[in-house]
## 1
Amino acid sequence: MNPHASGWFRTIYAGTSSDQRFDWRILRRTFRYARPYRRQIALMFGTILLTSALALTPPLILREIIDNALSNNDLQLLTILSVMLVLIPIVNAGVLVYQRWLNANIGEGLIYDLRTGLFDHLQKKSLRFFTHTKTGELMSRLNNDVVGAQRAVNTTLVSIVTNSVAVISTLIVMLALEWRLTILGLIVLPFFIYPAQKVAPVLRRLARHQMEENAKMNALMNETLNISGVMLVKLFGRAESESQRFDSRAATVRDAGIKQAMAGSVFFAFLGLIGAVGTAIVYYVGGRLVLEDVFTIGTIVAFAALLTQLYGPLQALVNAPVDFMTSMTSFERVFEVLDLPVDIDEKPDAIALSTVRGEVKFDHVRFRYDALGDSGLFRKAVTRHGDMSSVSRVLSADAKSNGNEGASNGKADLEMAKDGDSQARAWALDDVNFEIAPGQLVALVGPSGAGKTTITYLLPRLYDPTEGHILIDGHDLRDLKLGTLSQHIGMVTQETYLFHDTVRMNLLYAKPDATEDELMAVCQAANIYDFIMGLPDGFDTVVGERGYRLSGGEKQRIAIARVLLKDPRILVLDEATSHLDSESEKLIQMALEGAMQGRTSIVIAHRLSTILAADMILVIDRGQIIERGTHQELLSQGGRYKELYDTQFNPQRQQEPVLSVPASSEDDPSPN
């Protein structure tokens, strides 16, 4: 026996907390998804009634064969009844095939609606949501939990209806056949109900536990099997330890599955034993009544067959709360995501701008990354068990935690000391004010962590400001349609992301209907056309996951070509060229200069040439604009910008440091 599974019997029937009781709102919500399939559902109910009626016919035919055909030596009747015993299963099989087709259409259609609704809802979530949620957890909800919900519809709910009809119709026939034996057969009914009431919440708890552990395993796979994770694992020689970590997670999922399977096995074995006792009682009492000529042998044979048909559906029906509550846990977990509010939402009367001049204004903008979590937006409208908002650990999830992982330890941890160059603070941006006229180039400079990237994230509404307003052409971003922002604002981030697809598809992501001439034009403007033409398949060359088959400069130029194809009026650039070789840097700089022509541009500057060309320079420090002006104006002030210029941008000071190599013992002139 698996040592990891030992002790399952002691823990399997542990009590459940009150917050794990089934919420019947989940069922009502599920039925709302079934409304478009009312016609198919009605037809399926009709097939259920028909198959139930056909299933009751063979026992009655057996009684006729024993009591009439055989006892009266009626060969013709025996032949007719025997043929009926063959025809009924054939007809029943045809009806069951049609019922299965209806069931599949309903279940698959409902799950299609649920899965697409879930994916669409996730597309509306802000960047903040994805920084607070593990990708593997979301994949688990979209895949495993949706499949579990499909099982609830295709199997559990249909089984409940089918078995209900079977039990009711069988009882009616049994009562009509022999009411005394029917009462005897139902004596054991309480022994079916009581165990089901006790086991149902336990199995539901075990099912949820298995789903949660499976989500953790998926999160680990997502972290370590993507290209960046694989590279990190290999560079640090952690392949063996990661295999051991995955083995531990997989073992937890396995043990959870064993506990769930064993709990169900014990329960069904107990129900089967009760059914056998009920059948034995009926045979014993019924046999004595046959000996006393109360009724015929055919009656008890038919009744025994009906009793078997009763106990099977009855066991399934009594177990329905167990299966139902277990399978509905999948719906519950999917609805947990659907219930999360959309924090970056579009107003019903939002304005669509066909043209944009490019005027940008930040008006007393304040922003903190943890504000949304503090406001409770990630908390569920109803009590839920999973916390999609927690930045929980992936690799060290097995370590003991006090339940506050990812949470702040208080304001003192956020309000760091302001002396020195530390950028740690509570507010990422604090009272930021500036205006950009149409067509101007504004450069953002400042130390790492000062808030430059945060400013660029707020403009396309990846986040909303905690306080204050951001305006384009005098319109608050919250009053504009999201499509307007995505149409007129283009952004090239420091870390370029390319899909695992062709160069062409990555470019067309900005404009799906772009022509070949347009692709050529933007690639030439981005100084990447000659490189693409030199690839084996040209525009149809696959770039690999996240574009890892290309160099950093090549990816960056493709990203610039992509944003040029979009042709936005406002351009946001994180001019990341510091990690590139001089040739790639020069090509990208030329591409950027062309991209900014005639557009309002906000650039996080890494090069002196960009700063010199800027109409205005904003010096950011600790989330505030501490200086603003042109290059010469700021230099003359002799403030923070002068310090940054001298340390980062002044060509005369940018000399390569000389590495100090310790002398070997042979060259060491010092005495021993």
## 2
Amino acid sequence: MATPPPVPTTTPGKKNAVANAAAASFAGLTAKLDYLTAADVEQVRMAYRFADEAHLGQLRNNGEPYITHPIAVATQCAEWKLDAQALMAALLHDAMEDCSVTKVELIERFGSPVAELVDGLTKLDKLQFNTREENQAESFRKMLLAMARDVRVILIKLADRSHNMRTLSDVPKTKWARIASETLDIYAPIAHRLGLNMTYRELQDLSFRHLRPWRYNTLSKAVAKARNRRRDLIQKVQKEVEVAFADAGMKVRIAGREKSLYSIYQKMVNKHLSFAQVTDIYGLRVVVPTVVDCYTALGILHQLYKPVPGKFKDHIAIAKLNGYQSLHTTLVGPAGINVEFQMRTEAMHLVAESGVAAHWLYKVNNPQEASNDRLGTKWLQSLLDIQNETRDATEFWDHVKVDLFPDAVYVFTPKTQIMALPRGATVVDFAYAIHSNIGDRTVAARINGEQVPLRTELKNGDVVEIVTAAISAPNPAWLGFVRTGRARSKIRHHLKTMEQTESENLGGRLLLQALRAEGFDAFPAESPEYQPIWDKLLRFTGNKTRHELLTDIGLGKRIANIVAKRLVLLLAETGYKPDAILLSRERFTAHESTNQGAITLDGSENASVQFAQCCRPIPGDSIVGYLGRGEGLVVHVHDCPIARKLKAKDAERFIGVDWSEEPVRAFETGVLVTVNNGKGALAKVAAALASAEADIVHIDMTQEGAEEACDLRFLVQVRDTAHLDTALRNLRRTQTVLRAQRTGGASNGNGNGNS
């Protein structure tokens, strides 16, 4: 490459003009493109000319021609050795947004792959959003989806953000906080997740510098002073280590490593340390030829200096989520100063500094060898899976923020396959990480051979075994403790589908009962003969399909009686008459308190039926059902005050409900126990409930201090009223109990009142 001629001495104004011209020229970028073919370089040059012409006349905040920004972004991409298409997209990345260049024009000039990359990078300025958070979530979603299809998009985006952060001082100060916070919350974690550690550290430090300028400057000066004080010590350690490796005949490359300002600041804040108490600001990195040499180097260092207990980490045997591999150990050096050492190979160093970008670097350095195409793609694909099930941008952002969390736990399947999950992940997260069908059917789990609750958090090294059942389904309570976005989105998706199916089934039962009360024992069939009747009925209700109508009835959005009467009128117009015998029988046996026949409940209804928390009905109670608007069927005890108020306002929304003879599960109800305030009172009450086989779900205790008596409020699970009576009798026989009674339930003479 020809060296540009020296800049002649000029006036300051001319100097700036010459500097701007140099920054806006292609020559600086050309020097970085020696890894590309001549044809590829010419393609990149064509993209530069097009972008230069498109941005002609535009200036950045510092007065430089706008083209200097695309050139800087492309230069960073060239540092990562990205291919010609990515460099062309980097040069053109603002052309569609700022210069009214169309995607079709880019396809014609540079081909579809380049146009797709530019389209993935184009910002969403033209779209309108209600809140800044939603805007952020939506643009972030588009960016991640583009990344999931082609990781080059996010690499160009990170190069773009890096240059914007380097020149943030030229932007008005009023914008610093927003841009720096966004970088810290969104772009830095993505860089870390993709293993771009140099970019990650730079984005963090630049954000810190503009968010907390005073603290940044103070800490920067403190680090500079400490660097001068410890320079001799670090140099001494480095020389001693070099001699030790030379004596062992090992070829190594040793370099100093300094902790970034932001990570020092975070450590001080999180651990409440002063700057003097942060001991691992400086360290040494040892790069060796092979993996075996890493462990040999560790042995040599441990013979040279004493290791600090608990400060050894093997990230080679179990790599981090972003592909990072190294051995870490902290040793007590001269003068009692702790020094951290990292041992890695050249290939590991490449991945540690460049992460996913190492894919292209590796291709350039080793063109004949198979590269790690799957580096980072598992996480990217999981984001695409979440997007397919979650259409709400803010919800998607919540999922992704969880998965961006860099800390991880590593667990094993029964077949010893290693799985990495975010810290705090539970057994259910593990099940969904294996397969969505495994997660949906999970009923129990064993960790290291022992049975554990499904909410158990996983620890490093756990061997996790999932027990499934074909009839099992996700429990809404799981949403309260799952940690990963994948698990949360799968559970929500399943629950929404299940709720719709159950509501449709309930709506069908309600409409059929209402029809029987009108003298028809079945729906008109879905056949051409009855289609006009269904069409007229759907026009009357405003529904698009029969399934939607039945779902609305099940959710209480439509009244089954009104729909049935309209259907009967339509049938009568077509010549169909009610069955007189059925009509008289249904009216004779109709439920006394309602104007529809009764529905039988056994506890398996899930989302379509709710048992009211104001009265907590259990089998044996006399009950009524209320079709709440959009809530499905809500079951109350017949004399519940809330139900009486609702009935006075909305009598037509009440339907008859009865208990099945054999309910399939236990039901929750409240119990109030007044006890002598003494030692062991709670234990005795709990033992009395346990002996009656009543499971305790929740306990509330009144704060009554030194008073002689106190109230204990229990939420217990019982089979029916007879089972509850047994539990209450056990409580009343207990020595410390003064009174035991059911709360929020029926007073129907079953012995559930006051003692």
## 3
Amino acid sequence: MSTTPFTSQGYRVIRELGCNLNGGRVTYLAQRINTEEKVVIKEFQFARSLLQSWSGFKAYEREIEVLQGLNHPGIPRYLDSFETSSGFCMVQEYKNAQPLSVGRSFAVDEIKQIAVSILSILVYLQNRIPPVFHRDIKPENILVDELINVYLVDFGFARIGSTNVAASSVALGTLGFMAPEQIYSRKLTKSTDLYSLGATLVCLITGTKSTAIDTLIDEDGYIAFKHLVPQLSLSFIQWLTTMVQPKPKNRFPDAATALFALQPLDIICLSKARIDQTELKFTATQINEKLTQTITVINDNPETPLVAWWEVAPHPSDPPHTPYSHDWIDFSIRHSNNEKIICTVTIDTSYLVSNQIYHRQILLHTNSAVDIQTIPVKIKTAPLPITQSKKPYGSLLLLLATSGAMAWTGAAVAAIIAAVLMTVIGAGIVVVDDIVFGAAVAALVTSFLGVALGPVFGAVISVMVAIEIWCVIRAGMSNLTGVKPLVLTTNLKKDFSHLTGLVIVVLTALLGSCSGLVLKTGVINFWTVLAIASTSSSLAVILVYQPIRGRRLVAKYRKSEERLIKP
């Protein structure tokens, strides 16, 4: 704080408000001793800044000259000035307000109110004859109080009239906020201060510090801010873009025109987002399949840019995830404009257990009136790759019984045929008049046909007839149920190959035939035992191995699912 008390001039210093040592300026909050009115004293300490003495003195004179002729509620009034041992002091009306450069959050309607207030002050300045150009509008020089009353301060760089700026005056202003014509010493226009105000509003709505305004200026000299404020209405973005055009002819011609264009605008015109589906359902047909569906977010208010992003709601079975990344649910944008956003939702079922139903929720975040919408998601994963269908044991038992019955019948028929042949042959031989020889031949034929050829013939006939009867019965049953008639191995295709199914049918028929012959003839010898043992064991191996193999595969697959995400 300065050691100068200013008591001899009738003021008592309360505290220091600001200090610019390079410029040799110190600002104090003070109080008039006789009235106790709070004032602001701006001291120009030329003795402390010899290099700035001349420019500082000119700024001091200029500010007094400008302020003495101004009377506006948005501009603190000039009250007094006096000399000190180190320079000069200027006294102004005190406003209990903070500059925009101090971090503070404003509502959108408050931002518009600030813009309207500054434009109203500029309209007042530009309507003066000659007009007044502030030339240093920036966040530090705009004060806003708790009631959003706005004040424009620091007229040290102000200029009365629009004559060409001298080359020595190039530095009068703040880079980043100065209009190009101000930087290059060209003629000032009523749109010059509009550029500075526009840059200030860009800092305000984007949260950019005034010292970092240069980071928003692209290589062509334009202030690029649209990508930082997607929530703003297109009309306001266009208005602000016009304010900060590098060429004066592309800006509003004056503050009155800019104010007239701003007043009917909404800074944020909320979009009205709706989705074309209220629920997403996915069904997988293969293991590890990736499923995709599209969902469209429709903007019912295309005048406002629609911004949308997705998040998967937390679920106790899912691993921890961020709002932007999920293990097995992914989102991508296929198409986007102001009218709609088409998103692709991808489900990777390789992370999920087979033959299960998963329920999740995805959250749609938008800049619309309803900022979060919830969409339920249902995923049905594919069944196990190992088929566990019901085995055709009933059909095989039917075939076994049919074959046995036909073999028993075939053996009986063979015995009858053998008796008939014996009678015919014996009668023929008797005619030859050799009774003994005829009887012997008849006995041999009877024995051969009845014991050997009879069972073989009966077995072949029984197998053929049994298979035919079995197929007819199966086909008839299927027709009764409205199912397409079955062929020989249809009932076995789901679990066995065509060849294996045919082998099973033949083995079953042979086993039934052998069993039927043994029951009919009562002959049990090595060959009959071998036939029954070989067919039954072969059949048992085929029928038992397949289920065991299937169970092993299922167990192996289930073990691999232990690392997968549960429903």
